Amino acid sequence: MLLFHKFRITMMRAFSKFLLLLAPSVALKLTQKFICKPIRKPSNWPKQVKQFNTMTRHGKVRTYKYGSGKTIWLVHGWSGSAFQFWPLMQRLADKGFEVISFDLPGHGQSQGHYSSLPKMIRAFDDISASLLQPQQVITHALGASVVANSQWFKSYHQELFVIAPVLKYFELLQTKINKIGLDQQLFDNLIHHIYRREKMLLTELNSMPHIQAFTGRLNIIHDKYDTLSPATICEKLAKVTNAEVLTMNKIGHNKMLRSKTVLEFIDAGQQLENTA
């Protein structure tokens, strides 16, 4: 099995290098499809959820609003969508909040075939300018990096929940590239292609310093066995920020959004906010 894996990596590296030399534009498109095309999952929103489009520089972003009261934003991650938050939206609305979420470009019901962290950040900044400002923001996975690297976040000082946060996305992508054996030059070309479009360099998007500088109330929810959101990173962030932390045990990266324990932890945070 190990020999087969090494052979597959060697073949992938040789093929991608050959394709880069033979047809660089085709190689770039294939790399973009492999790395920048999110998986879209079906959604089944109930009729009582208000749906509308928010215009961004990357086209229409499908936006969802439910409940009434103080505003909370929910921000999904890579290959996610607003519908992942539906159980949480119901719970928050029942407790007297207006909950707003949206499908970032290339995700859910929004426009776009491809996406990237820089594109998601740019769209988020456009969205944030047109919505009611929140008293609380809840992110899942790469959503933490979207919010932390945005211009909007610099002036936000309320409460932030990060669930299974993906904070060092470039390192995660680089590990994936190395694991499958894709030629490094192809990956570098894609990074520069994204930079030319967004004027934002993926290698510089480390969310840790931005969240460490956050002056609001920070809450971290993570699974100590989550490889996408390593416990070492979450624990380091918690230590330097004095964040409230909920550590789960083998619940899963996406299943956390449906966990009763997670929902109760968020409830407790809201109760503290309302009595403050």
List the helices and strands and how they pair.
Elements: H1 2-22, H2 24-36, E1 50-56, E2 59-66, E3 70-75, H3 86-94, E4 97-102, H4 117-128, E5 136-140, H5 143-148, E6 159-163, H6 169-180, H7 184-198, H8 208-212, E7 217-223, H9 231-241, E8 244-248, H10 260-275
Parallel strand pairs: 3-4, 3-5, 5-6, 6-7, 7-8
Antiparallel strand pairs: 1-2, 2-4
Helix pairs in contact: 1-2, 2-7
Tell me the strand order in the biggest sheet.
1-2-4-3-5-6-7-8
Radius of gyration: 19 Å
Order of helix and strand elements from N to C terminus: HHEEEHEHEHEHHHEHEH
- Largest β-sheet summary: 8 strands, mixed
How many DSSP H or I helices? 10
Q: Whole-Å distance between the termini? A: 57 Å
CATH architecture of the largest domain: 3-Layer(aba) Sandwich
- Based on helices, strands and strand pairing, what is the structural class? alpha/beta
Estimate the mean pLDDT confidence.
92
Helical percent range?
40-55%
CATH top level class name of the largest domain: Alpha Beta
Shape: globular
Looking at the structure, the CATH topology of the largest domain is Rossmann fold
Strand content: 15-25%
The CATH superfamily of the largest domain is Alpha/Beta hydrolase fold, catalytic domain
Which stretches are poorly predicted, pLDDT < 50 over at least 5 residues?
A: none
Q: What's the structural domain tally?
A: 2
Q: Total number of β-strand segments?
A: 8
